[in-house]
Specification:
The complex is a heterodimer.
Chain A lengths: L3 E4 L2 E4 L5 E7 L5 E7 L6 E7 L2 E4 L7 E4 L5 E6 L8 E8 L9 E2 L3 E5 L1
Parallel strand pairs in A: 2-11
Antiparallel strand pairs in A: 1-3, 3-8, 4-5, 4-9, 5-6, 7-8, 9-10, 9-11
Chain B lengths: L3 E2 L5 E4 L4 E7 L6 E7 L6 E7 L2 E5 L2 E6 L4 E6 L8 E8 L7 E2 L3 E6 L1
Parallel strand pairs in B: 2-11
Antiparallel strand pairs in B: 1-3, 3-8, 4-5, 4-9, 6-7, 7-8, 9-10, 9-11
Classes of the chains: A mainly beta, B mainly beta.
């Protein structure tokens, strides 16, 4: 089945220790998104890729970086995690950018910072 | 003030009840309105999508948009325990604009 896969599902890291979350998709979609969702809060868009074009949201901290080496994979790098970065990180894809196209979400990676 | 407001719940109803979930918003430029369902430890999945004002029905689910009041609703008829989840509303101005999500309402349907 075509899907969005996130690994790992749960990640524990230490304060200040870099961490990388991964997302892969078999849908062959052009657009991939990274969202941060804290408990009982709305998902917050961090950035998205349209093919290889990277688009950063204005309020995304510099501590968050992303890589998309090919259509199928996208990575979220947190260079120096703080306690406030503990959250669920959701990857999503769509064939094009914009509301016209349904976003398909992965199951998320829950990040704990100790 | 948040752009999109949604009561967090939890909303607890007996099986078979009609459920009403709501969002209010402040941005009058929003034209596209969506409802996502998120089960525990899962990513959101799209339930309903509506453009501008009006109603849309899909099985047991009905979405309503009242742009004059900046108010949207999702009705679930004959609710089932499997409907227990968090329901997120989402909105967009259109074009290549990102979605703005509500924080979600947690629904519990008791058997």
């Amino acid at each position: 089945d075509a899907m969005v896969i996130q690994n790992p599902r749960y990640q524990v890291t230490q304060f200040g220790k870099p961490v990388t979350l991964s997302c892969s998709q078999t849908l062959n979609h052009n657009v991939m998104y990274w969202y941060q969702q804290k408990s009982s809060q709305a998902p917050k868009l961090l950035f998205h890729y349209y093919d290889k074009d990277f688009n950063n949201e204005a309020d995304t901290p510099d501590n968050f970086q992303s890589r998309r080496p090919n259509t199928s994979f996208c990575f979220l790098d947190i260079r120096s995690p703080g306690l406030g970065d503990a959250a669920m990180y959701l990857c999503a894809t769509s064939p094009e950018f914009g509301i016209y196209y349904e976003q398909y979400f992965g199951p998320g990676t829950r990040l704990t910072v100790t | 003030q948040k752009e999109v407001e949604q009561d967090p719940g939890p909303l607890s109803v007996p099986e078979g009840a009609i459920v009403s979930l709501n969002c209010t918003y402040s941005n009058s430029a929003f034209q596209y309105f969506m409802w996502y369902r998120q089960y525990s430890r899962k990513g959101p999945e799209l339930l309903m999508y509506t453009y501008s004002s009006g109603n849309k029905e899909d099985g047991r689910f009905t979405a309503q948009v009242d742009k004059s009041s900046k108010y949207i609703s999702l009705f679930i008829r004959d609710s089932q325990p499997s409907d227990s989840a968090t329901y997120l509303c989402a909105m967009s101005e259109g074009g290549r604009r990102a979605l703005t999500f509500g924080s979600g309402t947690r629904l519990q349907v008791q058997p």
